[in-house]
Specification:
The complex is a heterodimer.
Chain A: H1 19-24, H2 29-36, H3 39-49, H4 61-66, E1 77-82, H5 91-98, H6 100-114, E2 118-123, H7 128-143, E3 159-164, H8 174-181, E4 205-209, H9 210-222, H10 224-228, E5 231-233, E6 236-237, E7 239-246, E8 252-257, H11 262-268, E9 278-282, E10 291-292, H12 302-307, E11 316-321, H13 326-340, H14 346-364, H15 369-378, H16 390-414
Parallel strand pairs in A: 1-2, 1-4, 2-3, 7-11
Antiparallel strand pairs in A: 5-6, 7-8, 9-10, 9-11
Helix pairs in contact in A: 2-6, 2-9, 3-6, 5-6, 5-7, 6-9, 13-14, 13-16, 14-15, 14-16, 15-16
Chain B: H1 2-8, H2 14-21, H3 34-44, H4 51-60, H5 65-74, E1 86-91, H6 94-98, H7 101-112, E2 125-130, E3 142-144, E4 147-149, H8 154-163
The chains are: A alpha/beta, B alpha+beta.
């Protein structure tokens, strides 16, 4: 599938790291155009484009912007969610390291649209290189009149702060992020009120993912109709980054129209590692229920994956071949969620731990079919009833394990095969 | 503020205090400086946060010490025990696990001869397993101090560890 590179057009073009080089490629034209429009028109254009959030939830971006009150006695804020921590996801790091001004431009456009004079880019603490690149780009943008009291000579004021997190997955949840930005433990808030009304520092706030804001830049430049012409249908529009890892020949970030079939993604990255057989894949990061090899034709968009009981999430695709022990793989994700649960609400704090313990028991050879049955009972007691989406996320992979791979697990349990030998990767001659 | 600053200077170098206070105009509240201040304090204290450094940040930001200590305990990147001069974080999440992070972790353990979370007797290194570091396309990978080392093999990681001074 021949695809125009939109979001990744500056990857491998180091000139784009400076305002000057970025402008030579047409950069900041979208912002200039937006500043000539009324803020309401900017929001309308983004609404019409059908852009949905690229961070995981897929919420319509234009609608989110429109929830912010036009008149507010308090300042308003843009918070860019650059806390990319969903296991398997590394697309935003690419965007920030290779094209920081594309993001800065999107943030200022969002600021103009909702009337916010400050953006906080909340970047995960481990991304030291991306943070340094962003900080240098922000300084350059101030020096070039792109940021500051008079953005591109328009009279609009916009400031930008790169704020580093300190290692906590939950801070990718939008209200956890706001707490963290305010200097607290990153424990999610009870909603409502939603951040559009009461967000950062008690003020109206828009929180958007890095890739979402980058998309907004291109929508302003090329129009909603162009954006809508890409993708599956009017609810799944635009270019999309897919971060592919695991047992494939060439892991990496690939740009496709949203809704590309999984098989096309797989072929595009050189197919299965060493020509092995596909066993399972995770379509949207650790939170997304796993799919089986027989689902390989599925379209990778929000609605198709939701209908199939999974989700596009952050579009982090983790591919597993036929040497993979599904219990071991799921246990690793369960350990992650148990570690990252903020501990605030009971279903998540207790449930994530129980899922980990039961999987550990099965994996270690101490388990029985009763443990698998109990695991199936725990799942609905975590999802849908926790304070934030982490509980839902944590039960996703376990639910799919129980639903799709229990025959395999029961057979292994009956035959007393656990613990399965840990697959050696480098002993198989894989080391290059 | 003056007294807070005087108290803070018992535990933190003047340059770190200046760096923290210089952030004030970027935020509408003093408390919002907590995370960046702790990063700065940790860097100035040999890579971890002794109690005195946590207290210094609390004084500087006019917050109860318990509040700042609660923040410290919440985040994986703040350490309340001494760490090695070099800190190795080994990503062992799923994408890295599928590509051999278990063998990378084993190799580091053998090479350093200490348990996970402990510091080598010469103070040179400590290592921990870490959650996904967002570099799954170059799995397996580790982070040494601020740098990513990617597409590792046991041989490569052995060499990287040996070269740390």
């Amino acid at each position: 599938m021949a695809t125009e590179r939109v979001l990744t057009r500056n990857v491998g073009r180091p000139e784009a790291l400076t305002v000057r080089g970025y402008r030579e490629g047409g950069g900041y034209d979208a912002l200039a155009k937006a500043l000539r429009m009324q803020p309401e028109e900017v929001i309308e254009e983004v609404k019409r484009s059908g852009l949905r959030g690229r961070g995981g939830a897929g919420f319509p971006c234009g609608a989110k912007w429109s929830f912010v009150p036009r008149q507010s006695p308090k300042p308003k804020y843009i918070v860019c969610n650059a806390d990319e921590s969903e296991p398997g996801t590394f697309k935003d790091r690419l965007l920030m390291e290779h094209d920081p001004h594309q993001l800065i431009e999107g943030c200022i456009i969002a600021g103009w649209a909702v009337g916010a004079n400050t953006t906080y880019i909340y970047i995960r603490g481990e991304y030291t290189k991306a943070a340094a690149i962003l900080e240098a780009a922000v300084r350059d943008a101030y020096d070039s009149g792109v940021l500051g009291t008079n953005v591109l000579g328009s009279g609009f004021r916009h400031d930008m702060v790169v704020h580093r997190g300190a290692g906590a997955y939950i801070c990718g949840e939008e209200t956890g992020m706001l707490e963290s930005l305010e200097g607290k433990r990153g424990q999610p808030r009870v909603k409502p009120p939603f951040p559009a009304l009461v967000g950062a520092f008690g003020c109206p706030t828009v929180i958007n993912n890095v890739e979402t804001l980058c998309c907004a830049t291109h929508i302003l430049l090329r129009g909603a109709d162009w954006f809508k012409s890409i993708g599956t249908d009017e609810r799944n529009t635009g270019p999309k980054l897919y971060a592919i890892s695991g047992h494939v020949e060439r892991p990496g970030t690939y740009e496709y129209p949203i809704g590309v079939p999984f098989q096309t993604l797989l072929d595009g990255c050189g197919g299965m590692y060493r020509g092995r057989e596909l066993k399972a894949f995770i379509p949207g990061g650790a939170s997304a229920p796993m799919m089986k090899a027989s689902d390989r034709a599925i379209k990778m968009d929000f609605d198709t994956l939701a209908k199939a009981g999974s989700m596009l999430g952050s579009a982090a695709v983790i591919v597993m071949d036929d040497t993979t022990c599904m219990v071991r793989a799921t246990l690793r994700l369960a350990r992650f969620f148990a570690h990252e649960s903020c501990g605030q609400c009971t279903p998540c704090r207790e449930g994530t731990n129980w899922m980990k313990i039961l999987l550990q028991r099965i994996h270690s050879g101490q388990g029985s079919e009763a443990d698998l049955d109990l695991l199936a009972q725990v799942v609905p007691n975590v999802g849908g009833i926790s304070l934030c989406a982490l509980g839902d996320a944590a039960q996703g992979p376990v639910k799919s394990l129980v639903e799709k791979f229990s025959d395999e697990i029961r057979e292994n349990l009956r035959a007393g095969r656990y613990p399965l030998p840990a697959p050696r990767y480098f002993d198989q001659g894989a080391a290059a | 503020m003056i007294s807070g600053r005087a108290a803070a200077s018992q535990a933190l170098p003047e340059s770190a205090i200046e760096e923290i206070l210089a952030l004030r105009p970027k935020y509408p509240t003093l408390e919002a400086l907590t995370l960046p201040a702790l990063h700065i304090a940790q860097r100035a204290s040999g890579g971890w946060l002794p109690e005195a450094a946590i207290e210094a940040v609390a004084h500087l930001l006019e917050l109860p010490v318990a509040r700042v200590a609660g923040v410290v305990s919440f985040y994986d990147m703040y350490h309340v025990r001494p760490v090695g001069r070099h800190r190795i974080r080994v990503c062992t999440n799923l994408s890295c696990q599928l590509r051999g992070s278990g063998e990378i972790l084993e190799t580091i353990g053998q090479e350093l001869g200490v348990e996970e979370g402990r510091v080598t007797s010469d103070g040179r290194c400590s290592y921990v397993q870490f959650e996904c570091l967002g570099s799954c396309d170059t799995a397996p990978m580790i982070m040494v101090d601020d740098d990513y080392h990617e597409n590792l093999t046991p041989e490569r990681v052995r060499q990287i560890v040996r070269e740390l001074k």
